[in-house]
Amino acid sequence: MTDLVEGAALPAIDLAGPDGGRIDLQTYRGRPLVVYFYPKDDTAGCTREAQDFSAVYAELQALGVELLGVSRDTPEKHRKFAAKYDLTVPLASADTDAALEAFGVWVEKKLYGKTYMGIDRSTFLFDAGGTLVRVWRKVRVPGHVDAVVTAARALS
Length: 156
Description:
The protein has 156 residues and is an alpha/beta fold.
């Protein structure tokens, strides 16, 4: 597993899109990109984060910034999640370990004394050239999206 750090290049990976197609992250080169990883669809924190990103999605697009939310959930679960909460944020599925490993978000976690592997809630901001300019790890949802939008504005 790697730990993606500021100054690193956008990983050359692809993800499963909600429509069943593939999403190649390299196709985003030429414009800034926010990629956020979250543990699971339809849980309290993940729902709030997706709603917060959906609320600013149009603003990010107006700045020329693309946005992509990623979890291990299936494309079908993403479609149901988006429909249930009227989400506009694009969602993708990390259907192989390659994406999670490339971003260093597959980590050991503990809950109620049990240890397990899971996604570390993390956000990555890449500039138009595909260089990582900002990383947020172990994200706490309240106020996080505002910090991401502020950093994205600074790229414009």
